[in-house]
Amino acid sequence: MACRISVISRHISSPPLEHLDDLGIRVAPEVRSALSSGVGVVALESTIVSHGMPYPQNFHTAQEVESIVRANGAVPATIAILDGVPCIAWIGLSLAELERLAKLGTMVSKTARRDIPYVIARRGNGATTVSATMFFASKAGIKVFVTGGIGGVHRQGESTMDVSSDLTELGKTPVAVVCAGVKSILDIPRTLEYLETQGVTVVSYSTDEFPAFFTPNSGCKAPCRADSVEECADIIEASTKFGLSSGILIGVPIPAEHAAAAKNVESAIQSALHEAESRGIAGNSVTPFLLKRVNELTGGDSLAANIQLVKNNALVGAKIATALTTRLS
Ligand code: PSU
Ligand code: MN
User: Fold this and answer.
1) Where do the TM regions start and end (predicted)?
2) Residue-level pLDDT at 94
3) 299-306: which pairs have CB atoms within 8 A and are 24 or more residues apart?
4) Predicted ipTM of the assembly
5) Which residues have CB under 8 Å from 78's CB, separation 6+?
6) What's the pTM?
7) What is the DSSP string of 208-219?
């Protein structure tokens, strides 16, 4: 056992923090000390705040998610670009900054990997998507990242080629992303195929099926299953140890009591998809449009379910981050 622990500590250590200073990445003192003392850190994205939910639910949910992470022994690190400066856990620096972003909503640039240089060069404000958040989390040596849902292959993606950069990021960035799976606004079987092509380890938590965000069932079997946070940590440890340098996707099904409330979501998704097509919505506006319309069409039910599943993911993700660090001691 002692031998095992020493092997792990060599492989799960964080990069030196001076490296972040050299890059001009602002890191909250709490995250800085957690990273250097081996306390668990959970990265959180900011597009879910700006584009994923309306104000004030986005502001309240972001704070609740942070509290859940803390209550489970880890330090939350919300990532965004503010005035051209990449910030890790900027909430720790100022709650007012979070509220500013929550209120600005879609006025803030949705920032995926490709947008990072532009937002920084223009000294702009950027809400980071899963791809950009993974990128910065990995620079800081953060191993676990919690969100609601990731982007994927869109329906008709075979002709539009609308495939989220979240999937290619997962292929090349060693961060474990804890989410509630992929929404059926997307083509779930093709998304799983693409993740396989990218070499992403896809794990379902306590279920055989890959979850479909609002429902635990997608009809697609997940390639791997883990039944505890320790098993998730084992998988992250093995990937890290062998330097695979690709990501891990952990799909946590929405808790049953909240899935029931989201039952009418599928028909709303169908209507929203038709609307997006007839209105010619394309590119990176598609996902925010669909999220907003589905929420309107379900009279807020989808938002309520979304909030619950994000909180549940925060609980599981924080426990995974904590399980990883106890192996270091
Ligand atoms: N799915 C959700 N909520 C979200 C997003 C996706 O249920 O907020 C956001 C995430 O930031 C994700 C991004 O990384 O949308 C994907 O956008 P696109 O499909 O344009 O790649
Ligand atoms: Mn896209």
Assistant:
1) none
2) 72
3) 301/261, 301/262, 301/264, 301/265, 302/214, 302/262, 302/265, 302/268, 303/53, 303/54, 303/57, 304/258, 304/261, 305/214, 305/254, 305/258, 305/259, 305/261, 305/262, 305/265, 306/52, 306/53, 306/148, 306/214
4) 0.99
5) 43, 44, 45, 46, 49, 62, 66, 89, 90, 91, 98
6) 0.94
7) SBPPBTTBS--S
Atom of ligand 1 nearest to the CA of 53: 8
* Ligand 2 midpoint to CA 112 (Å): 10
Annotated catalytic residues are: 45, 183
Alpha-carbon dihedral 230, 11, 170, 145, rounded to 10 degrees: 50
Ligand 1 atom nearest the C-alpha of 288 is 15
Q: Which of 129, 169, 252 to mutate to test the pocket of ligand 1 (most atoms within 8 A of CB)?
A: 129
Residue with tokens 């999220």: 291
Ligand 1 proximal residues by C-beta, below 6 Å: 45, 47-48, 51-52, 112, 129-130, 148-151, 164-166, 183, 284, 287, 291
Using the mean position of ligand 2's atoms as its centre, give its distance from the Cα of residue 164 in Å: 5
Averages of pLDDT over runs of 10 residues in the chain (329 residues) are: 42 71 92 93 96 96 96 96 90 74 94 98 96 97 97 95 98 98 95 98 98 94 98 97 97 92 83 95 94 92 94 98 80
Q: Given ligand 1 and candidates 281, 287, 292, 309, which is best to mutate, with the most ligand atoms within 8 Å of its CB?
A: 287
For the CA of 186, the nearest atom of ligand 1: 19
Strands 85-88 and 75-82: antiparallel
- Ligand whose nearest atom lies closest to the CA of 62: 1
* Type and span of the H or E element at 271: helix 265-278
Q: Which listed ligand is nearest to 112 at the C-alpha?
A: 1
Q: Which residues, at least 6 apart from 308, have a Cβ–Cβ distance to it below 8 Å? A: 254, 255, 258
SS3 content of the chain, % helix, strand, coil (to 5): 55, 15, 30
For residue 241, give both structure tokens: 């140890």
